[in-house]
Amino acid sequence: MLDHMGLSIGQVAERTGLSVHALRFYEKEGILAHQVHRGPGGRRVYTDQDLAWLKMCIMLRMSGMPVPEIRRYTDLVRQGDGNELQRLDILKEHQERVREQMAQLQECMDLITHKVSVYQDYVNSIDARAVGQ
Q1: pLDDT tier for residue 1 given thresholds of 50, 70 and 90
Q2: In whole angstroms, what is the distance from residue 46 CA to residue 28 CA?
Q3: From CA 24, how far away is CA 21, in angstroms rounded?
Q4: Contacts with 31 (C-beta within 8 Å, 6 or more apart), sequence order
Q5: Which tens digits make up the pLDDT trace of 74-133?
Q6: Is 96 domain-assigned?
Q7: Is 117 inside any structural domain?
């Protein structure tokens, strides 16, 4: 257990829902804001800050942001102050894409809800006729 020194890759996998393989992939792809430290025996040791960053990246990825765009955002963060406008642009563009996705999903939900209602009414009418026989 590494809790007093940091988190093991297994602990981070458990807390984020990512596989160990995915964590290694994120590290290799330059998605982590800071280089992961190595503990005794060369094992990865993650900080709470690494965990928080990963959780944000997971949300960006879940919402459809491509890995190269997450990497671009991460690179800007690594560079430090002075590029906040570029970071803002990346996030605003993604925000707009997510808004569009949500609108499309709402249309899908409306259609599905309507179809469920139609079928529910139909099934209820069959049940009512069966009870009346």
Answers
A1: very low
A2: 15
A3: 5
A4: 57, 67, 70, 71, 74
A5: 999 999 999 999 999 999 999 999 999 999 999 999 999 999 999 999 999 988 788 776
A6: no
A7: no
C-alpha 3/C-alpha 67 separation (Å) is 29
Residue 49 lies in a domain: yes
**118 occurs within a structural domain:** no
- Domain count of the fold of the chain: 1
18-72 pLDDT, tens digit per residue, is 999 999 999 999 999 999 999 888 899 999 999 999 999 999 999 999 999 999 9
Planar angle of CA 64, 99, 118, nearest 5 degrees: 100
pTM, rounded to two decimals: 0.80
Residues 6+ apart with CB under 8 A from 75: 30
Buried b / exposed e over 5-34, threshold 16 CB at 10 Å, is ebbbbebbbeebebeeebbeebbeebbbbe
Domain boundaries, position 31: 1-80
CATH label of the domain that carries residue 1: 1.10.1660.10
CB 75 within 8 A of CB 100: no
**Residues 6/10/16/18 CA torsion (nearest 10 deg):** 140
